[in-house]
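Hey,
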Amino acid sequence: MSIFTPIESGSPLILTVPGLGGSGPSHWQTLWEQSRPDTSRVELGMWNTPHRNAWVTKLDQAIRQAQAPVVLAAHSLGCLAVAWWAELAGQTFGYPVAGALLVAPADVDRSEAPELAAFRPTPARPLPFPSILVASTDDPWIEIDRARSLAASWGSHFVDAGPQGHINAASGIGWWEEGQQLLDRVLDAASDRSGRPRNAGEARSLLAVNATEAAQSHYLGASAA
């Protein structure tokens, strides 16, 4: 039996995918889980000693158990878990993962942190779902140009969040309203009002237009990958 309960039949479920160390009580992922009835955390386990195959397996189990379209809200190393799941799962475009918000991905190829080594090399194929990648100009875990390059490889719409650190609790963003608005754009791009999944071209075009409009209200430098 599924551990996740859809709010409405066919409505996407939001699964948060934390990074190294998990997400603490003040992290936006945790706050979203507490405030949105459609949002649950993927318990990847081994938070401080992550292993790629174990994380991808846990993520796959959560996606399959959801019994509904899924939108992923990933942070840091969790973005790499999502990319590796997409690389290995072989899903058709838009189902069961209907979209993703990818926030502050860690640069595992250039990092000297041994905890990240198991996630090398970074997958480079386009993701089989519409996605937004958000990065900061002063993130210690990835340079902004590298984040932009990842967005281009993954077919993600890129949003420059300005100087926001690692876009986590230490960034002082709390519930992160701007992120919620970008998440809503992913949800809009995933399916139309009747619940019909959009095709790849339609989804990415709509996402680029809507995400840019949302980001320009709060961030400078939003651009399509």
